[in-house]
Design brief:
about 375 residues, alpha+beta, Endonuclease III, domain 1, 2 domains, 14 helices, binds iron/sulfur cluster, DNA damage, metal-binding, hydrolase
Length: about 375
């Protein structure tokens, strides 16, 4: 019986058979496919959100070596967890995993929930991750809809609605659920994602080599290039930011970002956004005064680092600086903690990618004492 949200034009069960046959041959050997440990599946699926497979592999292996199970993750300091995640971006994923691991230890006797509903109650676990754990680790007949699966079904069903609309999402989930061969949800879901990753790619899909091309309405209607219908892209925003490497007695001043918001809990060099009409030097002096209550002397420019995160394109102007009055004690208005650290200590702390690039430069060129 088709599920109630399944679309009318659903492909036949032959779709699932052809897909599974293809997957048997084509599946890539990925580290998270060699396990059915729900914790490892959970970690891999969280890492794979918004991140490419080849980037995730070394992080996944390091993560499991450092935190091999839920109790080791729950018992680790958040700083260590963020350090392990450094460079992967979207740090709330790591914070939520840490929080969820603690909840599992405190409230669930250290055992991961075995139901879709139970998983959804944990921080950071949404329909996608719960579907992945239920189907891949527990082999329950639960659908899994990620960006790859959305694209595949938008083409198979030749969907005219934008895939991000609730009605379209419901239809895709219904289709995915209806086509699961009983008892094979784990394989089927992974096969769908693999098809989206390897064959039904965003650009230039390999329709000639596609195992389910006979079922593809977009191919039949010649609309493949316009499916899926996507929402208009959000405009990127350019930001000019200043940061200061403030040195005193050979130590550098760093601050830890507040526990909420973007890149929460990561360390950084103090600074902030330029106001309109301000020079990078003026912005730096103002930011140190406002956020740390210290007067600085802005020195030579070290570098300008260009980087992008989420929808921001940032130019980070970095300067040497020093306190006008070395005995001043920085205040905590926009940070959780401040520290004076030796350059060699910077390696053991988690920084955003742009700051990490700066640290590599400082390590190479040296820090004035
Ligand atoms: S036939 Fe082409 S568009 Fe259709 S599912 Fe296969 S690869 Fe995607």
């Amino acid at each position: 019986m088709p599920e109630k949200n399944a679309p009318q034009k659903l492909p036949s069960k032959d779709f699932s058979r052809s897909l599974l046959r293809w997957y048997e041959e084509a599946a890539r050997d990925l580290p998270w496919r060699r396990t059915s440990d729900p914790y490892a599946i959970w970690a891999s699926e969280i890492m794979l959100q918004q991140t490419q497979v080849k980037t995730v592999i070394p992080y996944f292996l390091r993560w499991l070596a450092a935190f091999p199970n839920i109790s080791s993750l729950a018992g680790a300091p958040l700083d260590d967890v963020l350090k392990m995640w450094e460079g992967l971006g979207y740090y709330s994923r790591a914070r939520n995993m840490h929080k969820a691991a603690k909840e599992i230890m405190d409230k669930l006797d250290g055992r991961m929930p075995r139901t879709y509903k139970g998983l959804l109650e944990l921080p950071g676990i949404g329909a996608y991750t719960a579907g992945a754990v239920c189907s891949i680790a527990y082999n329950q007949d639960v659908p899994l809809v990620d960006a790859n699966v959305k694209r595949v079904f938008a083409r198979i069903l030749d969907m005219e609605k934008p895939v991000e609309q609730t009605a379209a999402a419901r239809e895709i989930r219904g289709a995915a659920e209806s086509l699961i061969p009983s008892g094979k949800a784990g394989l089927f879901n992974q096969a769908l994602m693999e098809l989206g990753a390897l064959v039904c790619t965003p650009k230039n899909p390999d329709c000639a080599g596609c195992p389910v091309s006979l079922h593809c309405l977009a191919l039949k209607e010649q609309t493949v290039d316009s499916r899926p219908v996507l929402p208009p892209k959000k405009k990127t925003q350019a930001l000019e930011v200043s940061a200061g490497v403030c040195v005193r007695d050979g130590k550098i001043l760093i601050q830890k970002r507040l526990p909420k918001g973007l890149m929460a809990g990561l360390w950084e060099f103090p600074g902030g956004k330029l106001n309109s009409g301000e020079s990078p030097e003026q912005a730096l002096v103002r930011e140190f005064a406002e956020e740390l209550e210290i007067d600085i002397q802005c020195g030579e420019k070290i570098t300008v680092i260009q980087h992008a995160y989420t929808r921001f394109r940032v130019r980070l102007h970095v300067f040497w600086c020093s306190m006008k009055e070395p005995a001043q004690t920085p205040a905590l208005h926009a940070a959780e903690e401040i520290r004076w650290v030796l350059p060699k200590e910077l390696d053991g702390l988690a920084f955003p990618s742009a700051d990490r690039r700066l640290i590599q430069m400082l390590m190479k060129d040296g820090v004035p004492v």
